[in-house]
Amino acid sequence: MLLQTWLAFFAACWVISLSPGAGAIASMSSGLRYGFWRGYWNALGLQLGLALQIAIVAAGVGAILAASATAFYAIKWFGVAYLVYLAVKQWRVLPNDMSDDAAIRQIGKPMALVFRGFLVNVSNPKALVFMLAVLPQFIDPHAPLVAQYLILGVTMICVDLIVMAGYTGLAAKVLRLLRTPKQQKRMNRTFAGLFIGAAAFMATLRKAAV
After folding, report:
1. Count of the separate structural domains present in the chain
2. 29: part of which helix (H) or strand (E)?
3. CA dihedral 38, 42, 48, 49 (to 10 degrees)
4. 2 in a domain, yes or no?
């Protein structure tokens, strides 16, 4: 892969990752609820979902899914339902004891957070179709394909890990400022609304528009 090709893709990765979406909302929600180190497990799950989508595109299965309206809408409505589920959970989160940073030490099972992040990314059909449209533009069909997809995949995942660390850390800083139950309740319901907004956006996706 030519250096200029990789640099162009590297720049595109930052734009893609920084664009607010369900992954960013999930990262901030986790950082807000568990603090940075515990909440960052969610970002690892996001990357597993991203890696699976890249593998699907590299294997050519992405083209089949993109052409299948049934598969597209099945994934889409699963994603909508899961985001609504996350919104309900966020809405119902109880205020935490903020003395001595007790909230940061609350238990959040790492594997549960990883699985949550994985589902957020893997249930977004728009992301899969988007990568199907973007990744091949940086691929040289006359060079070994596996190595190129590995380079692009590792690049995208590394950039997204950095960006999601920023979103998680930002929310974790906000956590320290939420000292009263009223403030925490307001913030939790704000994130619940963001999850609903992401679900509503996903619900508007149409196969013909992709």
Report:
1. 1
2. helix 22-34
3. 170
4. no
